Amino acid sequence: MKILVADDDRTVQIALKTLLSKWGYEVVTAQDGARAWEILQDPEAPRLAVIDWMMPGMEGPALCKKIRQSSLSSYTYLILLTAKTSKSELMEGLEAGADDFISKPFNAGELKARITAAERILSLEKELKVKNAELSQSNIDLSRSNDIITKDLQVAASVQQSLLPAQTGEINGFSFGSLFMPCAIVGGDMFNFFPLGDNHIAFFILDISGHGVPAAMLSVTVSKTLTSLIWEEAMTTGISRNGSGTLLSPEDMAAKLNLLFQSSDTLQAYFTMVLGITDVRTGRTILTQAGHPHPIRVPSQGALETIGNGGFPVGLLENAEYSGYEFTLNPGDRLYLYSDGITECRDDHENEFSQKRLMQLLEDNRSQDLESVMRKTAEELYRFRGGDAFSDDISIMVLQRN
After folding, report:
1. Which of 48, 143, 276, 391 is the most exposed place for a label (fewest CB within 10 A)?
2. Distance, CA of 281 to CA of 175 (rounded, Å)
3. CATH among 3.30.470.10, 3.40.50.10860, 3.60.40.10, 3.40.30.10 for 165-401
4. Is residue 203 predicted with pLDDT exceeding 80?
């Protein structure tokens, strides 16, 4: 696969080219926006471009806008390379047509992850384009059109699903399990967990207000932004490199997200969230809760407990303040994060499943492995719902210190 790198900084250009070539990509370079535009006119031009925001002549956003307004034969996935972090500047980049961002100075791990995600999306887009081309050759009726819409949504769902972690996994001595059941083909819930170097793990769960495609699109954007923010903070503090004993501050990251995603005339949405960082050596964990249901801690011995400090949803109040909640996950302890789609799930008589029922379910299955707990949670919710479709997205994730 060919990738275009457009950057007037020769040092950055060489660094990007060296890494991308090492990973097996064919790299084409440009010193400025005008030259990048010329390269993209070629029918065999790269379909993925990493573009520096600040370049002489034609800056990155201007190049993105020109590409989006053009009639290039194939979709070009655009990643802006920038040190800008303000909401207005990021919105400017998105409105110009950028698909994603990479912070400067860039991190090799983040770069590889974003390139891989872009490649996956381009592959899906190519498949979708081929299918649409085939369908356009036939005389299709309304029912066939509905089938196409459904297939498109399924592609979107597969993209969203690809951004979620595996249903079970293990990282640095911690086991993970998860369950995701959107009320539509795509949903507004998103969660993830990933290592920050050898000694720390980051995890989060978020729930976008609303359902369906708009909520799903925003959930992907928020998830990418939050992941980038976590990595940026990790690189700044150095914990991803040297395993420092100083944990990141989830409450500070929640405050930054709150400023970035303030509801406005163009963005009528907010979201709830739990974000946490764990030191795998000691189990020391700090999390912040932003209007999301209280996490449930299931100790290896003793009673279950809810934890967290509550907090306001992200994007709802400009001056909202968030606090950290610190605790220790001892060997054998489990921590469950879940969306209100579970606790507010209603039966035929409008009774809620409730946090109490969820805690009893977790208590009854505390000796089961994580995969079994996730399966039994789904079975119990289906039984409680009585066979009707869920009215809200269902998501739950669990981490266990082994």
Report:
1. 143
2. 14
3. 3.60.40.10
4. yes
Burial class (CB in 10 A: 0-12, 13-18, 19+), 218: buried
Torsion on CA atoms 358, 368, 157, 224, rounded to nearest 10: 80
- pLDDT tens per residue, range 10-55: 999 999 999 999 999 999 999 999 999 999 988 889 999 999 999 9
Strands 48-52, 324-328: pairing is unpaired
Task: Give the CATH fold of the 2-121 domain.
Answer: Rossmann fold (3.40.50)
What SS3 string covers 226-237? HHHHHHHHHHHH
48's CB contacts (< 8 A; 6+ apart) are 1, 2, 3, 4, 76, 77, 79, 115, 118, 119, 122
Q: What is the pLDDT of residues 241-295, one digit of tens each?
A: 555 556 678 999 999 999 888 866 565 678 999 999 999 999 999 999 999 999 9
Question: Are the beta carbons of 341 and 287 closer than 8 angstroms?
Answer: no
Distance from C-alpha of 272 to C-alpha of 392, rounded to nearest angstrom: 14
User: Are residues 371 and 167 in contact, defined by beta-carbon separation less than 8 angstroms?
Assistant: yes
Q: Where are the domains of the chain?
A: 2-121, 165-401
CA distance 77 to 5: 12
pLDDT in tens, 79-128: 999 888 777 888 888 899 989 888 888 888 888 998 998 889 888 888 88
Same fold, 2-121 and 165-401: no
Give how far the C-alpha of residue 354 lies from the chain's centroid of Cα atoms, to the nearest Å. 27
For residue 224, report the phi and psi dihedrals to the nearest 5 degrees. Answer: -65, -45
Q: Which two tokens stand for residue 221?
A: 């954007």
